[in-house]
Amino acid sequence: DSGVTQTPKHLITATGQRVTLRCSPRSGDLSVYWYQQSLDQGLQFLIQYYNGEERAKGNILERFSAQQFPDLHSELNLSSLELGDSALYFCASSVSFAGGPLGSYNEQFFGPGTRLTVL
Amino acid sequence: GNSVTQMEGPVTLSEEAFLTINCTYTATGYPSLFWYVQYPGEGLQLLLKATKADDKGSNKGFEATYRKETTSFHLEKGSVQVSDSAVYFCALSLGGTSYGKLTFGQGTILTVHP
After folding, report:
1. What was the pLDDT predicted at B29?
2. Are A92 and A30 in contact (CB under 8 A)?
3. Which residues of A touch B103 (CB under 8 A)?
4. What is the predicted pLDDT for the residue at A104?
5. Alpha helices in A5-98 (DSSP H)
6. How far is the C-alpha of A85 from the C-alpha of A11, rounded, in Å?
7. DSSP 8-state symbol, A100
8. Are B89 and A43 in contact (CB under 8 A)?
9. Above pLDDT 90, what percent of chain A?
10. Are A7 and A114 in contact (CB under 8 A)?
């Protein structure tokens, strides 16, 4: 158990709908990363937050957005869903970030993922 | 841009066989390198890491050496077990404006038969 929790574990919805995925980082971790794992694209970085602020953005679609709340949990919002959005969505947390206050390396701990199926 | 290339899978081995999974990378700057493992139905777990050239990461009998001259980080294990069956991902991380995000290879499925 990594200490990172994600809910829900599975989500089945229809095209055009909107869903929210939730992530609670390990206790004490300030940084949250979101990744998408699909058969087509593999594992891709979406977005990162550190202590409530967005720090890095990857290939995240405009239909997707995220935020990190004062209690450090994070939510990934996916809207106008398409069939191609079906994937496993992972959240990871770390104490800081590479190049941040703790130096050049920061281990990321991954949650179990949310499997999204768009029908 | 930064990228990671892993050997194509799947890889099928008999128990106690020697394992090598090749990984090469392209990066601007000096990345940290990682191998992650994903067991069926689970999230990713860090298997081993190396943060600078010539470092050797090791864990659970797996090893990988950070080779800057060949931009490689090949994963090896001398004697695999059935319980090693999983998907293995090579990844890199950079500081600066990358803020430590992980760039992954495509993953290699390993199946070990008794």
Report:
1. 81
2. no
3. 45
4. 54
5. none
6. 12
7. B
8. yes
9. 77
10. yes
